[in-house]
Specification:
By secondary structure, the protein is an alpha+beta fold. It has 7 helices and 9 strands. Helix 3 packs parallel to helix 5 and helix 4 runs antiparallel to helix 5. The longest helix is centred in the middle third of the chain and has 77 residues. The termini are far apart.
C-alpha cells in the first residue's frame, strides 16, 4: 500500500510540476514520504480502533438485551436485581458509544483523510446507536409498566394478608375464648364429679377430726386425710377390713359391700349418680 500511495504521490507531483518536476521531486526524499504515510496509517488505525470499540459496545448491548428478555418473564427475587444491573450496564455502554462516535467524528474532521465510505460508516454506527436507544427506552417502559402491575399485585396481596391477619386474630381470639370456655367447662365438670372418701378406725377418724361423738362432722375436719376421686371412673373401693360401716348417708340401693375370700370388704358402687347425690363425702368406719 505504501509503495502504491508513494507512486501516486510522486505521479501527482510530476503532473502538477510539468518539466520542472524532476527538480522538485528530488527535494523530497523517501523518508519524508514514509513519514506522511505513517501518519496516515496511524490516523486510519485510530479511526478503525474507535469503530471496533463502538461495534463491540453494540454487541455487548445486544447481549444484555437478550439477558433482560430472558429474565423479564419471571421478575421476582434476584431476577429483578439482575434486570436493573443489566439496564444500568446498557446505559453505561450507550453513553460510552455516544462519546466514541463524537470522538470518531472529531478524528475524521481533524485528519487529512477524505473518505466518503468512512463517513457513511460513522453515520451507520450513529443510526445503530439511536436504534438501540429507542429499543432500550421501549424496554424500560415495558419493565416500568410491569413493575407497576407487580406493585399493584403486591399491594393487593398486602391487603389480603392484612385481612387474613385480621381473620387470623379473630380466629385466635375465638380459639382462645373457646379454650378458656373449654377449661371452665372442664373445671366445672371436674368439680361436679369430684368426691372424697376415707375409711379408718374410730380412733383414726377422731384424730383427724372427721367424727365427733360418733357423728361425721360437717366442717373443721382434716380434708388432706381424705382421698379425692372422680366418681365417673371410681366404682370400687377396697376397704381391707372384715368390718365396715358407712357413716355418711348414701342410698342403700346404690351400693353393696362385698366380702372377698379373705372375708375383707370391698365397697362396690352400682349407681354412682344416686350414691353421691346426697353427699360428696364418704366416710367408712372399719375395725
Amino acid at each position: 500500500m505504501k509503495n502504491f500511495v508513494f507512486s501516486a504521490i510522486v505521479l501527482a507531483l510530476l503532473t502538477a510540476c510539468g518539466n520542472g518536476g524532476e527538480k522538485k521531486v528530488s527535494s523530497f526524499n523517501e523518508d519524508s514520504i514514509n513519514s506522511v504515510l505513517n501518519r496516515k496509517d496511524a490516523e486510519i488505525n485510530n479511526l478503525l480502533g474507535t469503530i471496533n470499540d463502538i461495534q463491540d459496545g453494540l454487541r455487548q448491548i445486544t447481549e444484555a438485551q437478550g439477558r433482560i428478555n430472558t429474565l423479564k418473564n419471571g421478575v421476582e427475587g434476584s431476577a429483578t436485581e439482575d434486570i436493573s444491573e443489566n439496564i444500568a450496564f446498557i446505559k453505561r455502554i450507550m453513553d460510552l458509544n455516544r462519546e466514541r462516535i463524537e470522538m470518531l467524528q472529531r478524528q475524521l474532521h481533524n485528519s487529512n483523510i477524505n473518505a466518503d465510505n468512512l463517513r457513511q460508516t460513522i453515520e451507520s454506527l450513529q443510526q445503530q446507536v439511536d436504534d438501540k436507544n429507542a429499543q432500550i427506552e421501549k424496554l424500560t417502559a415495558e419493565l416500568a409498566a410491569k413493575d407497576a402491575t407487580i406493585a399493584e399485585q403486591v399491594n393487593e396481596i398486602s391487603k389480603l394478608n392484612s385481612e387474613n391477619s385480621g381473620l387470623q386474630r379473630d380466629k385466635d381470639n375465638l380459639s382462645e375464648a373457646n379454650e378458656a370456655k373449654s377449661r371452665t367447662i372442664s373445671r366445672q365438670d371436674k368439680d361436679l364429679n369430684r368426691a372424697w372418701y376415707v375409711f379408718g378406725t374410730k380412733k383414726e377418724l377422731k384424730e383427724h377430726n372427721i367424727i365427733k361423738n360418733g357423728e361425721v362432722v360437717a366442717q373443721g375436719f382434716n380434708k388432706n386425710y381424705l382421698t379425692e376421686i372422680d366418681i365417673r371412673t371410681v366404682k370400687t373401693i377396697t376397704l381391707g377390713s372384715k368390718s365396715a360401716k358407712l357413716l355418711t348417708t348414701h342410698p342403700a340401693s346404690s351400693y353393696v359391700l362385698e366380702r372377698g375370700d379373705d372375708k375383707k370388704y370391698t365397697l362396690r358402687i352400682v349407681d354412682p349418680t344416686a350414691f353421691w347425690s346426697m353427699s360428696k363425702y364418704l366416710v367408712v368406719l372399719v375395725k
